[in-house]
Amino acid sequence: MGVETYMLTGDNEATALNVAREVGIDNVEAGVLPENKLDIVKSTQANNTKKVLFVGDGINDAPALTQADIGVAMGNGTDIAMESGDIVVMEGDLENVVAAVQFSKKVMRRIKENIFWAFAYNSILIPIAAGVLYPTFGITFEPALAGLAMAMSSVTVITLSLMLKRYVPEIKRVKN
Q1: What is the rounded average pLDDT of the residues 19-44?
Q2: pTM across the whole model
Q3: At what angle do helices 94-130 and 143-162 cross, to 10 degrees?
C-alpha cells in the first residue's frame, strides 16, 4: 500500500523481528518502554509530513493512540485503549487494520466523486432553471421539473454512497 510501517514493542528484539518479518513490517524498535511510545509518535510527527497511524491494545498504548493522527485500538485490548483510539477494530487481527485503511480510502474517493457530480449537475442545471436557454432557444425549465432534477441529484449521491455497503476491502477479497 506504500505505507512505511514501524513496530514499537516492549518485547525482545528476536521476537519482534520474527513477528515483523511474518507480517511485513519495515522498521522495528524492540524493548521500548511504555512512556517512550508517546515520544516516538511525537518525534515521527515532527519529522514527517505524512500522517501517523498508531495501532495498540494496552493501557501503555493509550497516550500514543491519543497523540497519533489516527489511533486504531484493537477490540480485544483494554477499555482505556479502545477509549483512546479514533477507530476500534473489533476483531484483533492486523488484517482488519489494513481493511480499515482500504475502506477509508474508498470512502474518501466516493466523497470526492459525489462532490464532483453534485457540482457538475448543479453547474449545468441551475443556469438552465434560471432561464439561460430562454432568450436563444425559448426553452424554460418548469419549477416542478427543477425540483425533480434536484431530487434526482440527491438520489444519485445517496445511491453511490449506499454502494459502499457492498464494498469488500482488497485484503479481504484475496483471502476469500
Answers
A1: 90
A2: 0.79
A3: 170
